[in-house]
Design goal:
The chain is of the alpha/beta class. It folds into three domains: 114 residues, Rossmann fold (3-Layer(aba) Sandwich), CATH 3.40.50.620; 184 residues, Alpha Horseshoe (Serine Threonine Protein Phosphatase 5, Tetratricopeptide repeat); 167 residues, DNA Cyclobutane Dipyrimidine Photolyase, subunit A, domain 3 (Orthogonal Bundle), CATH 1.10.579. It has 21 helices and seven strands. A five-stranded parallel sheet has the order 3-2-1-4-5, with helices on both faces. A two-stranded antiparallel sheet has the order 6-7. Strand 6 and strand 7 form a beta hairpin. Helix 6 packs across helix 11, helix 8 crosses helix 11 and helix 14 crosses helix 18. The longest helix has 25 residues. The structure holds flavin-adenine dinucleotide (FAD) and iron/sulfur cluster. Pfam families: DPRP (PF04244). This is Deoxyribodipyrimidine photolyase-related protein. It comes from Haloplanus vescus.
């Protein structure tokens, strides 16, 4: 039996490896020619694969590591060497991938057996048994997962009497707070050589220098340990905060390792819970982190699975505007956007609130085609894969689909002002809506609500927002519309 490991199957002991005679790994490059991926994204995948190959060989596996333009070319070579081979693969989460790979294998005379993906705790069968119809509520799923996995429970109830400490996860740090340290995994020779090859081979977007992501199981375990020891205590309270000059705050930075299979969600959750049991991290941090990993990450994977291909088709709000050049070039006076875009450019990373309430919020209010934004997230982030980027961008980020959200996550500049120190250092005035110098989020926010009134007013949870819309006079609307139109022109000209 040959086990086929994909580029995001990098754990040295995935359960699929049990009893394997041979391991096939395909380093195909054609996907990387289709988009201007971040060099650090290509770096984590290709360097991660090359390190995984070497570790597997050291552990005694025979590894056929095939470098080719496409999977098809690599499989031609594989089946020439091993006619009629049986391949076993963990079922890939991206829509249609399993069927495409099976076709590639069977058309070359082989067979493909699909097994469960151990990068997730909840299997498709378990989720489908839990889900009642097509209504998916994260909070229900999360509580079910906590009980199913026995995490932070006191009998059948949550420890501390509450399932959710969301309310305690919205603090902003005091002025004298400095974020805890972040770990760096400086490239070794193999990673450096891979990054240089990426640079010479592909058209990329983003900085290569400064690469410090884990690409081996050992480094990923160290990153988990570092997070739990240094940043987990502050993770909960400051989860939604943003600070000038700080890209990581107390976030875990573990998504790329989880999505590459270098870390397992179960061990990550256990490490956080054990810190709480040792009294080294407060419940609001540990519960908040568990909610993200055991709740949101697993939930997104299944919502995606259950709602594709519709999830990624069309747009509830029919938006067609192009993504403004500032997302590509990073040139803007808007402090919050300038910070968030440069974090992505420099590291292939921005934390959740920057992704949601700055990068997606602005694009949503501006009226960007959500599919172009999804592409941008897909090539720009080290942790991006279709199964996770698509539901986050198209569902949570832009409300292109209402598959699992009942209203868009949008806000005026007020939210950024409350959760960050950006507005104090920004040339725009967060308290003004119209007039030269008014914060662009403000006019665009009202213009967005007005433009999509027909669809949004009736969505149930927008009542409060529309009660404010109803209070504005015609002359206020004229000024808002004019300001929004002017802002869009300036954004397209790269002058915002
Ligand atoms: C517009 C948008 C795009 C996003 N794109 C991606 C993406 O391409 N890949 C990705 O893994 N996550 C994505 N997320 C979810 C989340 O923002 C990232 O997982 C997180 O910011 C990664 O940083 P971290 O590891 O420091 O996470 P932390 O803030 O420390 O959170 C801990 C872990 O929880 C998990 N998690 C938290 N929220 C989510 C979520 N909504 N969906 C899935 N997992 C979650 C991740 O595994 C993360 O590592 C996106 C969110 C938004 C709003
Ligand atoms: S004033 Fe507006 S543009 Fe400037 S940082 Fe605040 S929210 Fe962002």
């Amino acid at each position: 039996m040959t086990v086929w490991l994909l580029g995001d199957h990098l754990h040295p002991s995935h359960h699929v490896l049990d009893g394997a005679d041979r391991v096939l790994m395909v380093e195909a490059t054609d996907f990387a020619d289709r988009r201007p991926y971040h060099p650090q994204k290509l770096g984590v995948v290709f360097a991660g694969m090359r390190h995984a190959r070497d570790r597997l060989r050291e552990a005694g596996y025979t590894v056929d590591y095939r470098r080719a333009d496409s999977f098809g070319d690599a499989l031609d070579a594989h089946f020439d060497a091993h006619p009629g081979d049986d391949l076993t693969l963990m079922r890939p989460p991206s829509h249609g991938a399993a069927a495409r790979l099976r076709e590639l294998v069977t058309s070359r005379g082989g067979t493909l057996t699909l097994v469960d993906d151990d990068r997730f705790r909840c299997s498709p069968e378990a989720f489908d048994e839990w889900a009642d119809g097509d209504e998916f509520r994260h909070e229900d799923f999360y509580r079910w997962m906590r009980r199913r996995e026995g995490v932070l429970l006191d009998g059948d109830d949550p420890v501390g009497g509450r399932w959710n400490y969301d309310e305690e996860n919205r603090e902003t740090p005091p002025k004298d707070w400095s974020p805890p340290p972040t770990p760096r995994y400086d490239p070794d020779d193999l990673t450096r050589e891979t990054l240089e090859w990426v640079d010479s081979e592909f058209d990329t977007w983003g900085e290569r220098e400064g690469f410090a992501w884990p690409v081996t199981r050992a480094d990923a375990l160290d990153a988990l340990d570092h997070f739990v020891s240094h940043r987990l205590p502050a993770f909960g309270p400051y989860q939604d905060a943003m600070l000038g000059g700080e890209w990581a705050l107390a976030h875990s930075l573990l998504a790329s390792s989880l999505n590459l299979g270098l870390l397992r969600p179960g061990e990550v959750v256990d490490a956080a819970v054990e810190a709480w049991e040792r009294d080294e991290a407060p419940i609001e941090s540990v519960e908040g982190f568990v909610r993200q990993v055991l709740g949101w990450r697993e939930f997104m994977r299944h919502v995606y699975r259950r709602t594709m291909p519709e999830l990624a088709e069309g747009d509830l709000l029919d938006r067609e505007r192009a993504l403004p050049p500032l997302y590509y070039e990073g040139e803007t006076e808007m402090r919050c956007l300038d910070e968030a875009v440069s974090h992505v450019y420099e590291r292939g990373y921005a934390h959740h609130i920057e992704r949601l309430m700055v990068l997606s919020n602005f694009a949503t209010l501006y009226g960007v085609d959500p599919h172009e934004l999804n592409e941008w997230f897909h090539f720009g982030f080290v942790d991006a894969y279709h199964w996770v980027t698509a539901p986050n961008v198209l569902g949570m980020g832009t409300f292109a689909t209402d598959a699992f959200t009942s209203k868009p996550y949008v806000s005026s500049g007020n939210y950024v002002d409350r959760m960050s120190d950006h507005c104090a250092d920004c040339p725009y005035d967060v308290d003004a809506t119209t007039g030269e110098g008014a914060c662009p989020f403000n006019a665009l926010y009202w213009d967005f609500l007005k433009e999509h009134e027909e669809t949004l007013r009736g969505t149930g949870r927008m009542g409060l927002m529309y009660s404010h819309v109803d209070r504005k006079s015609e002359s206020e609307w004229d000024a808002i519309r004019e300001r929004a139109a002017r802002l869009r022109e300036r954004a397209m000209a790269g002058e915002l």
